[in-house]
Amino acid sequence: MAHVEQIFPERGPLTEKERQIVEAACKLFTEQGYEVTSMDKVAAEANVSKRTVYSYFESKEHLFCTVMGGMCAGFGEPSPNDIDFSGDLRSVLIESARLVVGKVTDPDKQRLMRTVIGEVEQFPLIGQTFWNEGPGKMRNELADYFRQMQVQGLMKKSDPVLSAAQFQGLVAGPFMIQTMFSGSCDWSQEQALATIEAAVDDFLKAHAPD
Amino acid sequence: MAHVEQIFPERGPLTEKERQIVEAACKLFTEQGYEVTSMDKVAAEANVSKRTVYSYFESKEHLFCTVMGGMCAGFGEPSPNDIDFSGDLRSVLIESARLVVGKVTDPDKQRLMRTVIGEVEQFPLIGQTFWNEGPGKMRNELADYFRQMQVQGLMKKSDPVLSAAQFQGLVAGPFMIQTMFSGSCDWSQEQALATIEAAVDDFLKAHAPD
DNA sequence: CGGAAACTACACCGTTCAGTGTAGTTGCAT
DNA sequence: ATGCAACTACACTGAACGGTGTAGTTTCCG
What we know:
The first copy, chain A, is mainly α. Chain A has helices at 4-7, 16-32, 39-46, 50-56, 60-75, 89-104, 107-119, 124-133, 135-151, 160-182, 189-206. Helices cover 71% and strands 0% of the residues of chain A. The longest helix of chain A has 23 residues, at 160-182. In chain A, 44% of the residues are buried. The model of chain A has no long low-confidence stretch (mean pLDDT 91). The first copy, chain A, binds a DNA duplex through residues 15, 17, 38-40, 48-52, 54-55, 59-60.
């Protein structure tokens, strides 16, 4: 939300007005969902006339898809690509886990996820985009990494995609399952980070080479 | 959806009309969410006049809360209480995991979860109910069980609630994260069940007593 | 049969909303 | 200064929706 323009690189540099609209739409759509957010509210929140909104986006649906698509793509950042994969297995896993937990415990990203999930039935493409750019991408990259580790004999043989999925579940699940439903989580950021090491060590123990 | 009356035990035996309304509301609310579902649609789907709907439920909000509350309570069934906890650790875990995966891969329950998550911001109580009657309840029951196992020296010492949360994440996460966003999951029911044993064995290896 | 309760059909009210039409204003480039 | 494009303010349309009012019909029980 803070860095709208870098979320929409394909649109080139945004007009000031355009930026205001996108920013307002991000805020309202993630806070209230598609239906409850009206175009008048967007215009008001953006300090812009409704006509201007419609001069940049031809319909509410277009605005929603554009904005959500951009945020979904932005959800992947920072991605595992930005992780230093050259370290030893354990520190790579810790770093990956921190990335995941950081996202899952971020209230803004939680709101984004809730809106995406709630609108999946009406806007399946947005859900797909989110998955592809976010958790799905990371799952694939982790799986690639695990495959290498297995070849090098640093992890026991197993389906690397399944292992990656389980790693994600093990690390994110405890927080995500709860926060998605009960609004906010009991666990503080510090507690969350503290549990990461336990999770990583459990994972390592289970996947140690024979 | 198929067994509406056993989901609303507190309302006593339902009128035929009432059953039709509740059934229609369950279907539409889970398929389309709160806003998109209109009271006219509910009445039509229930083959009942709109006036009759309002003679049983005083407002759309009441109907939604009643129906969703009932379904959330129903989500907990069958609960871990129905599990045979007398078996050995591994078979208890397998049975629990089957329970979890069965729910997470059920399209009807997926739709319910999506609606609950999507409406959490507007109806926090429903989210709370879902958590308390569903995953939260199971987490507590698993934690109690793990506590016992630790006392008996069958599992290594650790925070039992965290372990329960990780077990849930490890087992449900791989499917849930994907299906929530991308609509349906690549994994077949058989694949899902096959992965359960791997997950349980990983968990057991990580939590083996020292 | 008779009468009350449940139910229907349908018109109706007030509001909200997506989207348009328009006349007028601002700001900027030549 | 002139002209043009972006922008605003605001009224407006047509449709949908939540909810109500009412007159008439069905159902069922004594």
